[in-house]
């Protein structure tokens, strides 16, 4: 039997509270499905580590993490101690780049018992995933400033799209769409305004689409697409986007589906040459850290995504089902955290989900 090696990095603030809850639900699911996990916890990528060592991570972090099958990450950032750009660039962003995690995957699903800020929407109305290109595109370091401080001051920053970079994220998105019942892929474009790179993106979408005849493809300009997320979120299944467009959509999507506390994300290296990293969308939440009231659902949902990625979609679906059952029970029955209008704690909600994993058929 395979043993999966998981590197656990709680990070800062509520990361240190939600990660243990995530692990409890993860282990309950693994036990139930006969999956063996070997977890090692690391204290780096945190303000504590920075205070002791003056860096966010040890020099050999890459060798340390390289052998793991996945990284289960909480949140990094403690602005009173380390400036955010230092903590983020010194840890998470290095992992994403070094481990070539070129897909950022964010499911957006309106869960039972969670109120959407969109009027009249209930569970089943919102259930899509955003696939964001995570390594190139608009977020390049190609460019510069000339004639600084003069009337001719000029600033340039180029979008970089490579055929390899575009095709690999599109292939992932199409494969993902092929596995979902609706088999529908929407591409975010702006080829009417951005007249060189975006028509290229569209061309590559059309070419990749030829190889996936079972997937229905459409494209929308990013402005209209953003409006449709709000007006008709039920139209979407898999949405693929460049780095910048995907960044915006992957915040807008989960926002339409309710609270930040439940949103998960994955940074994936699909070839599995490097470990992929699973982290909730939220940060370290200094305003509520230490109170034991952080919602652990985002972290637990990450555990479900990690099980999917490790090749156990049945286990991932079971865990997601347990989350849904507990959320559906509502604050009267289940120990939901204050952001879900309940009085439960992180530990209680995590335990309720782990218990549900063991009980449900
Ligand atoms: P945040 O996501 O930490 O908090 C935003 C608001 O949402 C706060 O009011 C917080 O209490 C609430 N919230 C977040 N997660 C919650 C949960 N699980 N349950 C209940 N309420 C929750 O974003 P903020 O405050 O902008 O950033 C705080 C720190 O986290 C900064 O250092 C920032 O750089 C870092 N950060 C790290 C991220 C990561 O590790 N990927 C992502 C976002 C922020
Ligand atoms: Mg963002």
From TrEMBL:
The keyword Cell membrane does not apply. Pfam families: Iso_dh. Its EC number is 1.1.1.83. The keyword Manganese applies. It catalyses: (R)-malate + NAD(+) = pyruvate + CO2 + NADH. SUPFAM superfamilies: Isocitrate/Isopropylmalate dehydrogenase-like. Its cofactor is Mn(2+); Mg(2+). PROSITE patterns: IDH_IMDH. GO terms for molecular function: D-malate dehydrogenase (decarboxylating) (NAD+) activity; magnesium ion binding; NAD binding. Keywords: Manganese, Metal-binding, NAD, Oxidoreductase. Gene3D superfamilies: Isopropylmalate Dehydrogenase. Residues 5-353 form the Isopropylmalate dehydrogenase-like domain. InterPro entries: ICDH/IPMDH (IPR050501), IsoCit/isopropylmalate_DH_CS (IPR019818), IsoPropMal-DH-like_dom (IPR024084), TTC_DH (IPR011829). Belongs to the isocitrate and isopropylmalate dehydrogenases family. This is D-malate dehydrogenase (decarboxylating).
